[in-house]
Amino acid sequence: MRFQRQTISVEEAVGRLLTDLGRLEEEQVDIYESYGRILARDITATSDLPPFDRSPLDGFAVRAEDTAGATVEQPVPLQVVETIAAGDVPAKEVTPGTASRIMTGAMLPPGANAVIMFEQTEQPGEMSREVRIKRQLAPGENLSRQGEEMQQGSVVAKAGERINAGTLAILATFGYARVPVVRKPRVGLLSTGTELLEVDEPLVPGKIRNSNAIMLSAMIAETGGIPVLFEGLPDELPLAKKRIGECLEQVDLLVTSGGVSVGDYDVMAYLTDEPDVSLLFNRVAIRPGSPTTALLYQNKLICALSGNPGACFLGAHLFLLPVLRSLLGEGKVQTKRIKAFLGETYDKPCPYPRYLRGKLTEEKGSLYVWPDWNDKAGNLCTMSKSECFAIIPPGGRGKLAGEVVEVICHVMPGWSREE
Q1: Buried (b) or exposed (e) across 354-392, using 16+ Cβ within 10 A?
Q2: Fold of 337-409
Q3: Domain 59-133 falls in which CATH fold?
Q4: Distance (Å, rounded) from C-alpha 8 to C-alpha 284?
Q5: Under CATH, what is the fold of the domain 27-49+148-182?
Q6: Three-class SS of the chain
Q7: Which of 296, 184, 194, 180 has the alpha carbon at shortest distance from 235?
Q8: For 302-329, what is each residue's pLDDT tens digit?
Q9: Residues 6+ apart with CB under 8 A from 11
Q10: How many C-beta atoms surround the C-beta of residue 348 within 10 A?
Q11: CA 231, CA 251: separation in Å to the nearest integer?
């Protein structure tokens, strides 16, 4: 199979990865530990919001009909019967000719049907038994009615949403001290190749340090998984297969880097020929990283990414992260594509779509993408500044500056080309 590979599109490859891939089970966590997690169930309002009629501003609670004819020149006097702070329960009813001094968020007293702000009364800072109203109000003016924002039982956050700061505010408002979230997937990481050194080992001739493992670990954690780093995978198939089986027992998903090409020691390519392994694909129409492979072994998914850092980085975004989002039950799994003008001509021919790392800028209301030009698969020094992938269609012409291309963002753009 390693020399007879069927090339499929990125979209088809992702589709095969996600087929029959179920969401992981639910667990309960403390609200203070829930930020960034994925909701496992819909969250409903446990009460009306607001839970009572209240004032949205500092002023006076009044009967609107008592303000009829009020102007700056002819203010209407009303007797102040009490002061209501936020958190207080009003003690007195607003009756004809009276008003209650009221603070933002405080409960509306019985009888009141409008609130006039301090600035529209005479001497608002003076604590007096009388207030003089300088503007006529309509019934319901400057009020927040009970349940106007959300009624009890309504869905306020949906299953599959990632919990952000706003979600936390909603959860706290409705008393969710414990939050139902999807369990984080455990993702095993295995790097192939006897040429790899650990980060803290000194360089020796013919060896390189393993940068892919730490890079993938960060991407997995950022998406919501738990990276589990295993010792490197041997290049001998029997030993590698045994090692993979042991690792799969401890994780939900296994990711390897390296060993997917057609070299003599590319163990992941050899593994696809094993009778107890189900191959999903072993060649994708992309540059870099076309030998990217996926298979099923022991009823678990293995994503085998290229060992070249740039290709591994791209493969993780295109294939690994959608799998993680699916396991987490996220509502949006596929990577979103947008369109932008190509900032500079790129005319290097390629039989497959080429994904170029780059940056985005906004100029006079138009979006531009600028390739970083360091597009060899093994080059990694520009990855820390990469914001997106510009997709150059296959063929010999490439794309000219000013032509529209598809773009996949992987970080929030800085909108600047300055280094």
Answers
A1: bbbbbbbbeeeeebbbbbbebbebebbebbeebbbbbbb
A2: Beta-clip (2.40.340)
A3: Molybdopterin biosynthesis moeA protein; domain 3 (2.170.190)
A4: 5
A5: Molybdopterin biosynthesis moea protein, domain 2 (3.90.105)
A6: CCCCCCCECHHHHHHHHHCCCCCCCEEEEEHHHCCCCEECCCEECCCCECCCCECCCCEEEECHHHHCCCCCCCCEEEEEEEEECCCCCCCCCCCCCEEEEECCCCECCCCCCEEEEHHHECCCCCCCCEEEECCCCCCCCCCECCCCCECCCCEEECCCCECCHHHHHHHHHCCCCEEEEECCCEEEEEEECCCEECCCCCCCCCCEECCHHHHHHHHHHHHCCEEEECCCECCCHHHHHHHHHHHHCCCCEEEEECCCCCCCCCHHHHHCCCCCEEEEECCECCECCCCCEEEEECCEEEEEECCCHHHHHHHHHHHHHHHHHHHCCCCCCCCCEEEEEECCCECCCECCCEEEEEEEEEECCEEEEEECCCCCCCCCCCHHHCCEEEEECCECCCECCCCEEEEEECCCCCCCCCC
A7: 194
A8: 999 998 899 999 999 999 999 999 999 9
A9: none
A10: 12
A11: 14
What ranges do the domains of the chain cover? 10-24+184-327, 27-49+148-182, 59-133, 337-409
* 235 pLDDT more than 80: no
Confidence check: pLDDT of 265 > 60: no
**Which residues does residue 80 pair with via DSSP β-bridges, in sequence order?**
99
Closest by CA to 285, choosing from 397, 394, 388, is 394
pTM as predicted: 0.88
Supply 142's token pair: 């400057």
Task: Please check whether residue 353 is in contact with residue 394, taking contact to mean a CB–CB distance below 8 angstroms.
Answer: yes
pLDDT band at 374 (very low <50, low <70, confident <90, very high): low
Q: Give the C-alpha separation, 19 to 16, whole Å.
A: 5
Answer whether CATH 3.30.70.20 is correct for domain 10-24+184-327. Answer: no
CA 267 to CA 277: how far, in whole Å? 13
Strand 26-30 with 178-182, pairing? antiparallel
- Token output for 400: 């000219």
